Amino acid sequence: MGLREEFLRLLEEDEEFRMAVAGYLGLREVLEGLRRLREDFNKFVKERQVRWEEANGRFSRLEEGLGALTEAVYTRYVWGDLGEVIGASGERVVRRVRNADFDGVEVDLLVEIEERAYVVEVKAGPRVGDVGALLAKAELAGRRLGKPAVPVLAGSYIGREVEAYARGKGVLVYVY
Maximum distance among all alpha carbons in the chain? Predict the structure, then answer.
């Protein structure tokens, strides 16, 4: 058996010999480099996670701001449309309140006339559950005001099923 074959046999069969050769070849430095690389990678992941959380917070604030702006614009549109209906009927608006509060329950827009009130909920993409919540708000507002309250749903992405359900429950629906 030649030197080459003996060397390969020892590498394959003798663990102590294999480790000694690895040390001579710089495996220890390679392993240390891999350890440092893993530490750097873990640090990088933690930094990215912090940045992601910060970006997510900024996104949440942006989403809240956009929601508030959408609500303000749509309540203005509803006010214009309801104003025309109320004006055409000859009735008089008693008061109009954005973000009206009834025992901690917020109504996006309350338009009160002498005989009834309109309780407006603005949702970009309402679901059936939102219609139920609107009906509950209208019932609460009607009890507090001592007059019938008409629920009004306004939004831009109101699905057919939601719209049909809402109209079936006596809700006025405005799609913008």
Answer: 114
Q: Residue 143 pLDDT > 90, yes or no? A: yes
3-state helix, strand, coil in the chain (%, to 5): 65, 20, 15
Tokens, residue 30 = 């390679």
Domain range annotation of the chain: 3-60, 68-175
CATH number attached to the domain at 68-175: 3.40.1350.10
pLDDT in tens, 2-57: 999 999 999 999 999 988 888 888 877 888 888 999 999 999 999 999 999 999 98
The two structure tokens encoding residue 151: 């629920």
Instruction: Give the HSE-up count for residue 147: Cα atoms under 13 Å, Cβ half-sphere.
Output: 13
